Amino acid sequence: MMKKGIHPDEVTFTAIINGYCKNRRIENAVTVLDTTLSSKILTLIGPHIFNLVIDAFSKDMKFGLAYAMIAKMLKCCVTPSVVTFTTLIDWFCQTGDINRSLEVFELMKRCNCAPNVYTYTVLVNGYCQTGTLEEAVKLLNTIYDTGVSPNVITYTILIKAYVNSGDL
User: Fold this and answer.
1) Among 11, 66, 138, 147, which one has the highest count of C-beta atoms within 10 angstroms of its own C-beta?
2) Quick one: which of 124, 130, 113 has its CA closest to 153?
3) 167: helix, coil or strand?
4) Cβ neighbours for 140, distance < 8 A, ≥ 6 positions apart
């Protein structure tokens, strides 16, 4: 593109990276991201571009590479967003690894990134999937303390878990 005098912007790079990620060509997405970062074509890159790659790595169960993207974000002075952390938390919950989800959740708090209702709902679901309903209820109480309001999805997950366990 640049050889033809076309100067891509953040939207262009996001579209290219997103296309590569959706087609499971993550290496190409990382190459474009690295080129963008090293050439300083863009002076401001938001976390959403990194989130695309983190999600793609997570879908392929390459969690080490997903974590490396967070490290790269921090090195580039890009603050991980609630979406960044919630994406990893969700993928760990989906694989049944609630402990790794909680590690990411703690990292999120250490980075002063406030969890939102989706973050908490993902964790509640993770606890329910691993059969630790009492921990899900404890987390629900914590949600209220943070000022975040659980939503209908949060409650539906808990109700379904109680029904499935025979405790309701």
Assistant:
1) 66
2) 124
3) coil
4) 120, 124, 150, 154, 158
Measured CA angle at 118 (ends 112, 119), to 5 deg: 40
d(CA 61, CA 89): 13
Same domain, 69 and 121: no
Q: Which of 80, 96, 129 is the last residue of a domain?
A: 80
Encode pLDDT of 19-74 as tens digits.
999 999 999 999 988 888 777 666 667 888 899 999 999 888 898 898 888 888 88
Query: What are 12's two structure tokens?
Result: 């262009």
pTM: 0.83
Contact 116, 81 (CB under 8 A): no
Q: What's the domain range around 107?
A: 82-168
Indicate the residue type of 1: M
Q: Which two tokens stand for residue 157?
A: 């997950």
